[in-house]
Fold this sequence. Notes:
- The protein is α+β, with helices and mostly antiparallel strands.
- The chain contains 5 helices and 6 strands, in the order H-E-E-E-E-H-E-E-H-H-H.
Amino acid sequence: MILLGRSLVVNLIPAVQETLEVISRRAGRPLHAPLVVDERGRPVLQIVTADGVVGLVLPADDVVRDLLYVRGRLEPTVHAHLQDGLTGDEHHATRCLVACLRSRAVLSALQRLVAGLLRAPT
């Protein structure tokens, strides 16, 4: 389960970065979201404007929490996909991870995150 969860996170963060960059560019307010390490050694997404100004800094663990959890528990659809990923071989697990990333719950949470970042002052 730990390996499956880590695989989900390793794929989730780049998906957030790319989604934010594509949508913000199309919205006429291009943002870049490099993953860096903060002064305490934790991974964070820096939200950088087209001018190179670093705006918000989002801890990666907060992004994961906001996209996968509801009231401190794994979102039920996410939980179901991860549980299903444990029942087969690695190809089945990969398909379950993809289904999790494409689930309505994760995509809706990602939409809320991106919309909030686009509304945030730079």
